[in-house]
Amino acid sequence: MAQDVAQRDLNLGGFRISNLGDPATAGDATRTDNVHNPLAASARNVSPGTSVLASPADHIHPLEPDFVSLSDPALQVAGAKTEVWFGVVDFDQIVGSQIQVGLSAMLQSCLVQAWLDGEIGNPTAGTLVMNIDSASPTLVPIASIGSAPFDRPSGAHLLTLTAEPVGPATEGRSLGRMLTLRGLS
């Protein structure tokens, strides 16, 4: 005849719990704290708290890395290196110690580059963080994720996209550019 162990005072290891109350040290059998509300996941480098209760009172999980997407659906025709889009990103709003860049677009004989901290009108004064290209004579979808994440800067920074023709083409076309920034821990 089998015994129903779920009705006995056993822990998950099968050991009888002899005194379930407030714990004195970490590892003691414990009860849950149903009084306090859980803390919101709202910080980058947080860890479980010091409470020995199974407690939400000081237990917090770190935020998951962020994913930011910026897009420009317009068709751009470039005869020389042309600034096709720029925007300001507040990197303090992205969780993670590094940033991975993704870039996608429909391209025709075109090179698209993403620059960080260039100047409006002179984006190549900044740091090149990603590029994609295609020598196709027709618009084709191209997408890539950068293999070299960079350290997340703090504060607001200018991001710029440039487009230029590749190979023997005298003009390049780009359509539906999308830039993604993913925070990595």
Helix content: under 10%
How far apart are the termini? 53 Å
Secondary-structure-based class equals mainly beta
The biggest beta sheet is recorded as: 5 strands, antiparallel
- Please write the string of helix (H) and strand (E) elements: EEEEEEEEE
Give the class-level CATH name of the largest domain: Mainly Beta
Counting copies of identical and different chains, the oligomeric state is single chain
Q: Please give the domain count.
A: 2
Low-confidence stretches at least 5 residues in length (pLDDT < 50)? none
CATH topology group of the largest domain = Jelly Rolls
Number of strands: 9
Count the DSSP helices: 0
* Strand residue content: 35-45%
Q: From the coordinates shown, what is the CATH architecture of the largest domain?
A: Sandwich
Q: What is the overall pLDDT average? A: 81
Shape: elongated
Instruction: Using the CA coordinates, give the radius of gyration.
Output: 27 Å
How would you characterize this protein structure?
The chain is mainly β. It has 2 domains: 1-62, no CATH class; 67-184, Jelly Rolls (Sandwich), CATH 2.60.120. The chain is 0% helix and 42% strand. The strands form 2 sheets. Strands 1, 3, 6, 7 and 9 form a 5-stranded antiparallel β-sheet that branches. A 4-stranded antiparallel β-sheet has the order 2-8-4-5, with no helix packed on it. The two termini are 53 Å apart.
